[in-house]
TrEMBL record:
Domain of life: Bacteria
Pfam family, one: Peptidase_M24
Entry EC number(s): 3.4.11.9
Domain Aminopeptidase P N-terminal, chain residue ranges per copy: 60-200
Region (Disordered): 1-38
GO molecular function: aminopeptidase activity
Family indicated by similarity: Belongs to the peptidase M24B family.
Species this protein is from: Streptomyces glaucus
Listed PANTHER family: XAA-PRO AMINOPEPTIDASE 3 (PTHR43226:SF4)
Needed co-factor(s): Mn(2+)
Name under which the protein is recorded: Xaa-Pro aminopeptidase
SUPFAM superfamilies: Creatinase/aminopeptidase, Creatinase/prolidase N-terminal domain
Length: 494
């Protein structure tokens, strides 16, 4: 990695936080190899550059959808200024940053994904006027584009404000002017908190936590029902995820020679080639690690005879993520006890998926799957029945642990800020997408179960779209039944 000439914190970012502060010269990096910039070099770098403005841009595919979302937001909060930040770069260590991912609320309403962006909706007599505030192209007159740590010669070209207007269908302005404008704003204001400290500071005397939370909740509930574009993106994410699972099966021999990280890295390659990233930290849990629900260390051995619980999802370039789990026999064949537990989870998942339909209570699929698991645990003598008693007391949770699913979308646990009455206590509608993912986990040190059960963890997870007449399994291309899994793995291994 080349050593930059300047600090990682850019002058543009500082100006965005406080545009009234006097402009400071771009500072040299401590311990940099160049002591300064000569006047001759500075003058040379100002000129001799071609015009690179892009003048034939088409709007992003979801531009009509983001406009409709902003209209719905406008109708909910008439007469109020609404401020939705994308967020800022976060430092990983010293002068390196984590890859940037815009806030879901901002990306959902604009389609833009660049750091420091802010959507502002100004109230008008008949609704709102939206403006997207962005960093413009790097300044070549003052040397920002080549001297600043976030200058374009270091991190890449940004869209000009004119280009952004064409792409997103929203008037664009310089974000470095925004904090000052917000300080002078009058009238009711709401902001989505937690993404941009500078913007929040400019509004500190104008907003309340309660009112801001109402905005966040509304934006979360807007995403409960997906439009056609979103469903298409989720299917893309799932399709890439299916290919990622196939990639993993093909290299299980290499994973056995190394560790779970080979599996993680193999899936990540597919995610980066076909999408933006993984939608969440890949769980590549082999052997007893499968009993740790969110095992993301992925540093354990992969052994023939053990199970591999792979919970992974590709995130598309528009931030929609899949979330799929399969529990695979590393050898290609389930043992008798592994098959017994796997088939019980499969039966529970079948019951859960069958309960997903419009008009059903959201909780129905969870209750259906939990009943099957409780029945199995009673039948195996692991817990005393009857089943109704087990469910009433939640005794099955020692081995099932988690809920049977969640909403899915731009977040892997989408719509998390929605009110309980519209989410967990709500009713399913066409266009909702959720996971169905029952599991059984017998910890390696659990003395309440026979020894042969210990260290076995099984989860099966699929992404389910609620349709007008029932549901559609978006991830049906991945086999689920134990014999079909074995046949699929055998075919991939050749």
């Amino acid at each position: 990695m080349a050593e930059e000439l300047t600090p990682a914190v850019s002058g543009a970012a500082a100006a965005a936080a406080d545009p009234e502060a006097p402009e400071e010269p771009i500072k040299q990096r401590k311990n940099g190899l160049y002591p300064g910039v000569s006047d001759e070099l500075a003058e040379n770098m100002r000129s001799g550059w071609a015009d690179t403005e892009l003048r034939d841009l088409e709007p992003i595919p979801q531009a009509a959808r983001t406009a409709a979302r902003r209209a719905a937001l406008s109708a909910r909060f008439p007469g109020e200024r609404l401020v939705v930040p994308a967020g800022n770069l976060k430092t990983r260590s010293n002068d390196t940053e984590y890859p940037f991912r815009a806030s879901v609320e901002y990306a959902y309403l604009t389609g833009n994904q660049t750091e420091d962006g802010v959507l502002v909706m100004e109230p008008t007599a008949d609704g709102h006027r939206a403006t997207i505030y962005l960093l413009p192209r790097s300044d070549r007159e003052n040397g920002e584009f080549w001297l600043d740590g976030q200058g374009e010669l270091w991190v890449g070209r940004r869209h000009s404000l004119a280009e952004a207007e064409h792409l997103y269908g929203i008037p664009a302005s310089d974000v470095r002017e925004l904090a000052g404008r917000l300080r002078e704003a009058t009238g009711p204001v709401r902001v989505v908190r937690g993404h941009d400290a500078g913007i929040e500071a400019a509004l500190t005397d104008k907003v309340t936590a309660e009112r801001d939370e109402e905005l966040r909740v509304f934006l979360s509930e807007m995403r409960l029902v997906k439009d056609d574009f979103e469903i298409g993106e989720l299917q893309k994410a799932v399709d890439s995820t299916v290919r990622g699972f196939e990639d993993v099966v093909k290299v299980l021999d290499k994973a056995q020679a190394t560790s779970e990280r080979y599996i993680e890295g193999t899936f990540f390659l597919r995610a980066r080639v076909e999408g933006n990233d993984v939608g969440y930290g890949t769980i590549a849990a082999a052997g007893p690690h499968a009993c740790t629900l969110h095992w993301v260390r992925n540093d354990g051995p992969v052994r023939s005879g053990d199970l591999l619980l792979l919970d992974a999802g590709v995130e598309t370039h528009t931030y929609y993520t899949a979330d799929v789990t399969r529990t695979l026999p590393v050898s290609g064949r389930y043992s008798e006890i592994q098959r017994k537990i796997y088939d019980a989870v499969y039966e529970a998942q079948e019951a859960g998926i069958a309960a997903v339909r419009p008009g059903a209570k959201y909780r129905d699929f969870h209750d259906a799957a939990q009943r099957v698991l409780a029945e199995k645990l009673v039948a195996w003598g692991l817990v005393e029945g009857p089943v109704e008693r087990v469910l009433e007391l939640g005794l099955q949770r020692r081995w099932t642990l988690h809920g049977t699913g969640h909403m899915l979308g731009m977040d892997v646990h989408d719509c998390a800020a929605a009110r309980t009455e519209t989410y967990v206590d709500g009713v399913l509608e066409p266009g909702m997408v959720l996971t169905v993912e029952p599991g059984l986990y017998f910890q390696a040190d659990d003395l309440t179960v026979p020894e042969e059960y210990r260290g076995i963890g099984v989860r099966i997870e699929d992404d389910i779209l609620v349709t007008e007449d029932g549901n559609r399994n978006l991830s049906a291309a991945l086999p689920r039944r134990s014999d079909e899994v074995e046949a699929w793995m055998a075919a991939l291994k050749g």
